[in-house]
Amino acid sequence: MSGHSKWNNIKHKKEKTDAQRAKIFTKIGKEIAIAVKESGSDPTVNGKLRDLISKAKSLNVPNDNIERIIKKAQGSNDVVYDEITYEGYGPCGIAVIVETSTDNRNRTASEIRHYFDKFGGNLGQTGCVGFMFSEKGVIIIEKDDSIDEDKLMETSLEAGAEDFQADGDVFEIYTEPEDLYAISDAVTAAGYTVLSSEKDKIPSTYITLDNEDDIKNMGLMLEHLEDNDDVMNVYHNWENADE
């Protein structure tokens, strides 16, 4: 899993300004509402909803907000959203996957294409970069002096985890997507506090950008994509994105 850090992505979102955090709260609320409409409001049955509640909590969305969104979604049939995934390339062939949820396909497609074109990339066909990513479950646990790394790793692997890493101030546990919830429950039952438990797309290879213009353009592309109201998730294989 070298080069990838789910926790860095979460910290980046946590550190945004109040206005940006409000936009993130709105997006996660939209995802939760869609999940409730699709498969019900019980997270023990609706795995996608459970995943999103965990994601919302990791981003400090208040529990009251989450409960209010779920209740509202149960009684609302106002807007129908389409979930559409776009694939393409950033500067120097950086692979990019953009997951969207929209009530206007033409608007969203036009805006996503504009961001790729404006910042030195190009939007491709479905599947053009998807094969470079593997979907995994990622469980994040914050380090503290009470945690024995070897015992946590043993607990994770015995529960069925694929990989375990110490990454900065957290431990990251990687699972098959379908095993995420069971392993997260096993780790929690063993007495560990899970900061985040959600699915992610992990690239098989990474590209490092050295040219300042390419770095600037790739950063701006990601910034514009993530700020778009219709964009739910952005995945890429830019090695030095955190810098």
What does this structure look like?
- The chain has a domain of 69 residues: Arc Repressor Mutant, subunit A, CATH 1.10.10.200.
- 44% of the residues lie in helices and 22% in strands.
- With 243 residues, the chain is α+β, with helices and mostly antiparallel strands.
What's this entry about, in short?
Helices cover 44% and strands 22% of the residues. The two termini are 18 Å apart.
Radius of gyration: 18 Å
Q: Give the class from helix and strand content and strand pairing.
A: alpha+beta
Order of helices and strands: HHHHEEHEEHEEHEHE
Largest sheet: 4 strands, antiparallel
Q: Work out the helix count.
A: 8
* CATH architecture heading of the domain at 6-74: Orthogonal Bundle
Distance between the termini: 18 Å
Mean pLDDT value: 88
Q: CATH topology of the domain at 6-74, anyone?
A: Arc Repressor Mutant, subunit A
- The coarse overall form would be globular
